[in-house]
Amino acid sequence: MDDFGPDFTPEQVARGRALRRAQVPWALGGQAAGLLLSLVLGFTPAGAGLVAAVGGLFGGSRTAEVLGGAAVLVLLGQAAGLPFSARVRAVRTRYGLVTQGWRGWALDVLRGLALTLPLALAAVYGLYALTAWSPQHWWLPAAGAAALLVVALSFLYPLLVEPVFNRFTPMEPGPLRTALLALAERDAIRVKDVLVADASRRTTALNAYVSGFGATRRIVAYDTLLGTAEPREVELVVAHELGHVKHRDVLTGTLLGALGAAFAVCLLSLLTGRQVLLSAAGVPGVADPRSLPLLAACAAVLGALAGPPQCAASRRIETRADRHALELTGDPAGFIAMQRRLAVANVSDVDPPRPLELLFATHPSAVRRIAAARAWRR
Ligand SMILES: [Zn+2]
Fold first, then answer.
1. What CATH superfamily classification does 168-245 receive?
2. Low-confidence ranges of the chain (pLDDT < 70)
3. What are the sequence ranges of the domains in the chain?
4. How far is Cα of residue 40 from the mean position of the Cα atoms in its chain?
5. What is the pTM of this model?
6. Residue 18 C-alpha to ligand 1 middle, in angstroms?
7. Ligand 1 midpoint to CA 45 (Å)
């Protein structure tokens, strides 16, 4: 089972496995802690009491309960996950994957909060304006608003969110840039530029991605990738990203996400209409801002249930982009070299246990991707 032939040395396989074993319990622990906190606050009267108490600090009005409650839920959720993500980071530091100090990490956490907090406050404010308008029919406009929000955020993400964390520069003119633009042209895809992100300020890991759609679409490569991989390997990474562009994966994913968000709002309205849940939370109905922790708990459960199907869809999309890279370049040997480079540099577990892969992996394992390239060659 452990023989991956010439692709990975036993040391490389063992190192990836050891990192996975060291970090997965903390990563999953963080998710479990967040979920548990949501459940305790939402399905007992504790959350309603907390919202009332925080609202009371700011005058006790409905608006104070809505905004104070939303803020305290976001901050508590962040606090519950923080020790676990710090531990994951410490593990990754031991494996040489982290280049950023704790100060920079703390700044990133604050930057994340500065983005999520206003957004959460605005969304929850809008939501409770709707439940006050109609405790029966709030979900109809809320579902539409949730779908629109997903589309708007995905479109604006490259403009509003990415620049908060990284600096992006057009790739420097040279043979590699010329080769990448020629590759896109051969693929009949209009690409103005390949952008380079200064990922090396945080990590030694290698990556590239596509984000945005329409006017905000962009292909981004990590500077770590350009600094360490062979030009041919970079071309194969970009060929994979062109596969995402060709199949409009970001747009499709956004539209599916929008539908999913609208559907989730409908489910939330059904769940929060159940007397047994309202009684458990100690609130009379969704028009009462003290129902916020119950809504958040139901949303957290739906989010956790949606994880594995989302990962399965993602793995299919990644497999399709891999295939596109092979068809565009006709270079399975280069593709395999690129997969080996990424797996070793990122200290990936090249062949993780199947249940972990099914539940949490957004990409097929390196061993599967390499096997698929060999199958394609035949
Ligand atoms: Zn991909």
1. Metalloproteases ("zincins"), catalytic domain (3.30.2010.10)
2. 1-5
3. 10-165+247-377, 168-245
4. 25
5. 0.92
6. 25
7. 43
